[in-house]
Known about the structure:
This protein is 36% helix and 13% strand. It has 17 helices and eleven strands. The protein has a six-stranded parallel sheet with strand order 3-2-1-4-5-6, with helices on both faces. Strand 1, helix 1 (22-32) and strand 2 form a beta-alpha-beta unit. Helix 1 (22-32) crosses helix 7 (197-220).
Amino acid sequence: MENNTSSPFKAIKIVECGQGVSAAFGAKLLADLGADVIKVEPPEGDLTRRRGPFPQDREAASPEPQTSNPLPQGSRPPDSEGSGMFIYLNANKRGVVIDLNRAEGRQLLSELLNRADVLVHNVPPSERDATGLESAALRARHPRLIVAAISIFGESGRHASYRGYELTASNASGWSFLSPGASPYPDLPPLKCFGSQCDFQGGVNAAITILAAYFQRLKSGHAGNSIEVSEQEAVAAMLEMNLMHYTYAGRETSRLGNRALGPWFIADCADGQIFVLAVEEDQWKRLVDFMGNPEWAGEELFKDRLSRAQNMDALKALMTEWLAGWKVQDLYRAAQEHRIPFAPINTMRSLYESEHLRQRNFFVELEQPGLGKLRLPGMPSQYGNSHWAIRRSAPRLGEHNEEIFCGELGLPRDRLTALHNSSVV
């Protein structure tokens, strides 16, 4: 772990509220660059503390936390300080507990915001007034504050008050309708991409606009700003040509049917799978040469990329034996040498053991109390003139209550004790 003295972002003070992934990831991107982030959790802790993976599926050594999702009778909750998801999202942050449903808690938050540049949260619009997180009221009380609010549908429009989850955003954005691509099974429903990808995109968009608003404030000297991020819109904006097919040509793309160009498929090799792609005519010619110019490649069925797509099943069957004789990495490297854009289908283990990612220092070590050394994904980008580092472990629940409330806000310790005893902090 390293100190924060060289970071150009160390002056930015951020308060993060909410639950789950989106606000936490947006704040994480800025915390990793050096911003001072205070994570505010409810007394029962962030939901991601109850999501895995957990070390050796370890059970909690402490009493069960409060939860709206009761566990089966006789079972114990996972270790709330050992969630891999929570640790990844919240390293480099300090953590406090505040019950924002209580007036005393909302007053503590207001005092934190008096010292902050940015508030980022993902509390649903319908709950913001009750928790003191309504953007207009916050901006009136804290004129220099930048408020970044992430939700499924945004703060205006007929769906603004609707509650939703990442699954909602995936379907509302149109992404699920397109997945899995080129499916031959019309009876199967749309499929959401694995994980919390829409939440992560909400966090990325929040981080970008927070920095834009912050530097605009520095440049102009004007007051802060209100930012709203809609996960539906963040994902819909990434759907490549699918929306344009409809707006330009009136055609609705679908997950069903065949690829328009070929070859384009996933195939088995001797030790894994590889993505076979050679849709440009020059790529196909190099691939035929690479395969040793088999006689079948000259058949009318495969005369051009449209024909190869229409006869993809036959093409794949003819290539199967040749592909199966290769190891994935050997075939990948050999195809690259022939300027053929094959790509390995990486498993999580092959990613973790990737020599390329090791050379780029993508995975970083973190010393997490109670767990020892962990190896986590690092920043997804590198900065030539800036510096990022893992400076602190993810906070234990309420770890920095005294440091922040007493040491920085000047709250008397007996008052902190009273607030703790009444479950406000």
